[in-house]
Fold these 2 entries.
Entry 1:
Amino acid sequence: MIAPAIPDRVGRRWVALAMAVLMLATSPSVAVEPSEMLKDPALEARARAIGQALRCVVCQNQSIDDSAAEVARDMRRAVRERLAAGDSNNQVFDYMVARYGDYVLLKPPFKAGTLLLWLGAPLVLLVASAAILVAVRQRRVAAPPPPLSERERERLRSLLGG
Amino acid sequence: MTRRLLFLLPLASLALMAGFLAWSLMAGRDPAAIGSVMVGRPAPRLDLRALRDGDKPLTDALLRSGKPVIVNFFASWCTPCLAEHPLFTRLAQRDGAVIVGIAWKNKPEEARAWLAKLGDPYLYAGLDFDGKTGLDWGLSGVPETYLIDGTGIVRYHFRGPVTEKDVTDVIIPFLKAKQ
């Protein structure tokens, strides 16, 4: 007898599960090379957290940890140098902003120029909720329909075959 | 009546969005532009070994001489640098511009050979082999060019190759205004 080419329902489920596990088990690729890493695991962990939040200035929407660009490598090295010199995370961010501006932050700062960006969506939600609330209230309060006139009652009776 | 106007609301929002997108496309808005935070600020630190043998190292004093200075980051491996190079040669020869060239992530012998072949427009030439000075200057790659006034303030920052139009519209007027 020939074995079925497509596994049965149970077998397929196992394949799907195995694929999901494999996908979750692989870590996302990072461009950080072993030679760049700091010996102190705590400092290296901080460097990674910062590196994930800093934008590679030549690759649009990629963090410096994900990018293999020359300038991203320089920035990773600078982050580690600053941390090794005793800077706080915020000082490292300030160091980069002083050189590349807010552009370098993947998460834009909350300030006058970005108010609409941060508050726009919640504002729309608020306005829409208020509008819906008002509409629902109005519908509930709507006056009951006036009673049927004698003529209408007559017609209703005839329609119902009374 | 108001109810009927309400039906126009989705259409109005669509028109608003279309308007914004059209403006984004037409007005030449470039969301990829990094901009520069250097403009209007004192030039970053300059402390580099000289590219050419026998030259003195490059220091901050070069940028605060009272004369405007052009600082150009380049590399022999960079093709756009090749394209803008004749413009700097002409600025140095015809206009007497003070140009500081900084070889970025370049082997010094290769940078020197490149200049020997194409001509050397740089009054001062430095070597930023590991890119640390570039980082301090907010460099994203090569070529990039900074115009620094006599007091050491950065006035312009070009990302990418300088063009003929940049020379006539910005660089020449800048050099003349401050002299």
Note: The mean pLDDT of chain B is 93.
Entry 2:
Amino acid sequence: MISVAAKVNKKRRNAVQSVVCPLIFGVALIAAWQTGLLHTLLNTDEYVLPYPTRIATIMSENSDKIMANVWASVEVAVLGLIFGSILGYLIAIFATVFPKYGSGGLTIVSAFNAIPIVALAPVIINWTKDVSSEAEVRSMVAKVIVVTVVSMASMSVNAYRGLTELPPFSDDLMKTYAAGRLTEFFKLRLPNSVPYIFTALRVSVPGSVISALVSEYFAEYITGVGRQIRENILIAQYSTAWAYIVTACIIGIVMYAVLMLIEAVALRKRR
Amino acid sequence: MKIIKKILNSKAFVTLVWIAVIIVIWEICATRVAEVKRTPENVLPHLGGIVDSLTSDRKINGSQSALEMVLENAGATLSRAAIGYVIGIASGFVLALLMSLSGIIEKIAFPYLMLIQLIPILGMAPIINAITGDIAISRIVIAAILTFYPVAANTLAGFKSVRREAHELMYSYAANKFQLYTKTMIPACIPYFFTGLKISAPMAITASILVDTLQGGIGLGCLLSQSLKGAMTRYVFWDIVVFSAVIGILSFYLMGLIETLLCPYKRIGKKG
């Protein structure tokens, strides 16, 4: 009995430690930043690296403008993510149905993943010049396509694994049931691929935010958090730029948290 | 006949067919664009045109041909990317090692390791450029940060993948910490470590090119934005796009090749 109590105690202490330790580190880091220790370490001044309090003030003062840019970026990231994931999943289905040519196609798709976004964004912006006469719509389409291409690759590779790496003997079971290919797909392969979809999204959600921000750099129409970081640095408004950087980080973290939430709900019966 | 059949069924052949399909589609689109656009090379040039511009020795900026120019700028960008990459690998590996050695360090660092992945580092490129004040250093720093996370996370997963039996065996040999790490833990994490390398190699290159576009000077990104603004023929832009795509893909395969050369498990796996 004593040993069980000790074990529980140890577990509790572990849990407390894993919250407290990072927290202490974070507080120490912010304290070093606020007191100027960080500036000495990085050999920079409070103009380029403003104090946290200053960044917070600017964020609260310009919250309307920041939120408008946040929506512009999030819209691009989410739309691209949705299109890219659907497209990636369709490619995975294609690869499952035609294994020989499909998996070769997957190699090509994952090679696309290695193409730098920096090279991709200007090309796609060139291609979408005729989509609309309005710069805002044009840029939006171009940015969404960039995010789509980036999030497509991880989804197609992971979904293909989910559709083909079946639990042992499950396809034999399907054969005993004399299930058709469609039944096998909907009753076995599709459900089996759900956890893999989330594995893919864990990669592509942060990826979609990053590629949305980067594609804004090259877009015609000036909007979005990424573009604001750059524009404000060009006019040497470093504090405002930092406000947008902090915003960008918050976007990344919030979107990942939302994904975790959806995953917890979607996979609750599997745990 | 058997050999022909074998070639037709091989994976390389399938990939080749796909590449051929992509080239055909590209050329059809390029022909279509050439008919309707006044300056087709701005939208989609023929692949032949891109190859021509790379092989011709016509001087573009008075002293260099397109190929020389791309290569010189690529040298500046890629060498910085490589330095950052190596620094990122080394620090990522060391952090993973420290996290595996000490529970406290793991507890402190793990949440932040997760956070780094969620923060759009590339969005921070302009500010890092402002802090360091030197474009070469900021290329290195950003490439290193981007490399750091995949390497650290994958290596740590490698350390955790060591099976309980292996630990028990080392315990019965009365192995000390140093022996435990050199004989079991580090060899076990190498495949995971290389996964990290493969993920981060194209990222380091992307980061370096992106940092280039922020400032004038020498580098692929600078050349790219100059060409987009019309300072030189648009073909330079296409040369860079093709070049960086090829380098990005090659860097991925290069890591795979290094893994095969260095690691016995890869070669044995191929034979059996």
Note: Chain A touches chain B through 52 residues (CB under 8 Å).
